[in-house]
Amino acid sequence: MGKDTLTITDNRTGKTYELPVEHGTIKALDLRQIKTGPEDFGLMTYDPAYTNTASCKSRITFIDGDKGILNYRGYPIEQLAEQSTHLETAYLILNGELPSKQQHDEWVFNITHHTMIHENIKDVLDGFRYDAHPMGMMLAAVGALSTFYPEAKQVRDKAVRRDQVFRLIAKMPTIAAFAYRHAMGLPYAYPDNDLSYCGNFLQMMFKTAGRYKVDPVLERALDVLFILHADHEQNCSTSAMRGVGSSETDPYSATAAAIAALYGPLHGGANEAVLRMLDEIGSKDKVPAFIKECKESGGDVRLMGFGHRVYKNYDPRAKIIKKMADQVFEVTGRNPLLDIALELERIALSDEYFVKRKLYPNVDFYSGLIYQAMKFPVDLFPVLFAIPRVAGWLAQWEEMLEDKDQKIARPRQVYLGHDRRDYVPLESR
Ligand code: CMC
Questions:
Q1: φ, ψ for residue 72 (rounded to 5)?
Q2: Would you state the pLDDT for residue 298?
Q3: pLDDT at 233 over 90
């Protein structure tokens, strides 16, 4: 049986070092002792985009990208999507275990009773132009919440933290629905505590005059989509949440940073980009030409909703969503863009370019089609990603705060700029 160590020989000096290996990693700081002389800073790793660097130890989400496995706290995503609810899954992600009946009821009660937002937040939303992107509105409104709950700064106090967790999970759908109604020029529809998390969200979005009747199939479909989006380990927005939170800023400010990261088209903005791409392609017969354009562009034109940094197999979330689409379309009618999406998938999965690069549909490829059939406008799609993901962000943020190994995030750099040089006055340049 070998030893759990790594032996490194520095060919610059001929010296040998033995470093401990734990959980398949070496500590980057252990490399610092490897120097060419007393003036040398010591060896570092160079890893732009953190493609091979573990930034934390986590017990929340497990992904095996080659096998297409996703588990929250050990429970397979397929079982949670089939049997759990989003709020129960959020409890699991945040607390580590499934709740007892009493814990579940208290949790749901607490979240349901924090769904109202301060009236002044409405004024924040009213200040935006009618065509403001709702993700920008959400980012601002969540950041603004930090000024309404100044006690949230006490990030080392668990009880205070818990209150902000209730508030953030509860208020995200309210902010999202209000942002939508602002764009539509509709009066805000206030939360209804008799409805489920998703039922309430649907009524806040779509209620017009009279009572809004929540369709149980759409309510459940939205809940399942929320379960699938609840966490995804150390992605760009979660790393933003952890990185910004590591300065011990309040969770609203850190969540605003995470929302900003999610906004980008390579991350949570991809579901919106998929729909715009399908619209642009326009019909099934134009799919081969689009695929050709993707391949010839050298990565500039991308098949949105395809590829993933971690999954090198079919994204398990995309599988579940694809199956669910039929149930939703039975209620809403078939989304005509589905035919284009299916044709894109069919061609891409047999095309050498995509096969060689292991590019498979990801979570965003089919989710937009469902959201659009449910009458959510396209620019609200990233917001629909942010609502459930706040559970994951908060769980990762708390795990970071409780982790003795963590400190304020502060990467190193390899400086390649000028050596010291003297300032030249303007008239001499
Ligand atoms: N369409 C066409 N080519 C692609 C695509 C794509 N969607 N994705 C990657 N490639 C190519 C890329 O051009 C490169 O080719 P080459 O080796 O010839 O230079 C190769 O595949 C590797 O790509 P990469 O950019 O190095 O891979 P990455 O791990 O850095 O990027 C990604 C991952 C998700 C950003 C990328 O696949 C992408 O841009 N996909 C489209 C956007 C998208 O759907 N994003 C949602 C991700 S899932 C939701 C979430 O978690 O945020």
A1: -105, 125
A2: 86
A3: yes
Q: What residues have CB less than 8 Å from 417, skipping those under 6 apart?
A: none
Taking a C-beta distance cutoff of 8 angstroms, is the pair 171, 117 a contact?
A: yes
228 touches 317 (CB < 8 A): yes
Give the whole-angstrom CA distance, residue 192 versus residue 200.
6
Residue 69: strand pairing partners:
64
What is the band of 210 on the pLDDT scale with cuts at 50, 70, 90?
confident
* Residue of 356, 253, 340 lying closest to 304 (CA atoms): 340
The rounded distance, in Å, linking the Cα atoms of 132 and 127 is 10
Q: Which of 337, 320, 385, 312 is nearest to 63 (CA)?
A: 312
In contact, 369 and 335? CB cutoff 8 Å: yes
Contact status, residue 333 vs residue 242, Cβ threshold 8 Å: no
Helix (H) or strand (E) holding 75: strand 75-76
Nearest residue (by CA) to ligand 1, atom 21, is: 357
* DSSP per-residue letters across 49-91: GGTT------SSEEEETTTTEEEETTEEHHHHHHH--HHHHHH
Q: From atom 26 of ligand 1, which residue's Cα is the shortest distance away?
A: 309
Q: Is 295 in the pocket of ligand 1 (CB under 6 A)?
A: no
Map out the domains of the chain with their CATH numbers: 66-267 (1.10.580.10), 270-373 (1.10.230.10)
- Is there an atom of ligand 1 within 6 Å of 312 CB? no
Point out which residues pair with 9 in neighbouring strands: 16
* Structure confidence by residue, pLDDT tens digits, 137-186: 999 999 999 999 999 999 999 999 999 999 999 999 999 999 999 999 99
- The tokens 């999507």 sit on which residue? 81
pLDDT tens per residue, range 390-429 = 999 999 999 999 999 999 999 999 999 999 999 999 999 9
Cβ–ligand 1 contact at 269 (below 6 Å): no
**Catalytic residue numbers?**
267, 308, 364
| From 308, 355, 393, mutation site for ligand 1 pocket: most ligand atoms within 8 A of C-beta | 308
Separation of alpha carbons 32 and 138, rounded Å: 42
Pocket test for ligand 1, best of 51, 306, 310, 366 (most atoms within 8 A of CB): 306
Residue 265: what are its φ and ψ, rounded to 5°? -65, -15
| The token pair that represents 90 in the structure block | 């959020």
Q: Helices 251-263 and 134-148 sit at what angle, rounded to 10 degrees?
A: 170
